[in-house]
Input
Amino acid sequence: MSEHKLAEPSERPTLKVLRPDESPASAPAEPQGALAADPPLIPGDDLFGELAAHSQRLETATPQEILAWAVEHYAPRFTMATAFGPEGMCLIHMFSEIAPQTPIFNLETGYQFKETLALREQVRERYGITIEYKYPDQTVEEYEASNGGPVYKTDTNRCCFDRKIKVLHQAARGMHAWSSAIRRDQSPDRAEHPIVGWDKKFQLVKISPLANWTKKDVWGFISKNDIPYNPLHDQGYPSVGCWPCTRSIALGEDERAGRWSGSAKTECGLHSSD
Output
């Protein structure tokens, strides 16, 4: 990967690094993420300082340079979860050129749009990469039967936790780092995410190569490289999650306004810091 030269250190002020704190009561009790790896990656002041320095230096790097750095430092204990959004599709394209062996997975909650699921086969045909499905313990039918009906109608936080967050904890266990597809301009909750930081919820290093990109950057890259994308994006769905909790948005709305519309909920829990 010698062709991927890193940019000079940025002059920007250091962004906050996510630090571990007391685990929420709902989090698993056993070691998670990098703490369960062999060898483990133990969070502490030395690691936090190292991550902050890397994050600062990578502020002016391209996403490809950031991914190349991440693969060099953390493979084979480096992974990515994708919901096949436009940002995720950009990263899959980059992975195909930089490190196609990187394990990438999708949380198959049982509530995804058929258009989303169809992208898995398109990725396999285009890039020769098979995205692994990660499943909850119960099927949708079993889950709804054991809870007296659809949980998303009564408790969206619990539904996300049971069908996404639990599965993510399992998928992250034993890894040192993973890549996210978030952009800082997507929402106020994401505005201060570092390029490289410690993911306190899942206990591993979180790398966000597209943090400095804009929506225009993403779609320009998709157009230039003829990258497949979810057709729902052309129907007013800039952000696509599970179908019961996703709607199209109106002109001028925040691009994540269609997620859990009508509630204060803005994240499934993957990218929130608590």
Summary: The two ends are 36 Å apart (CA to CA). Residues 1-27, 265-269 have pLDDT under 50 and may be disordered. The longest helix spans residues 156-172.
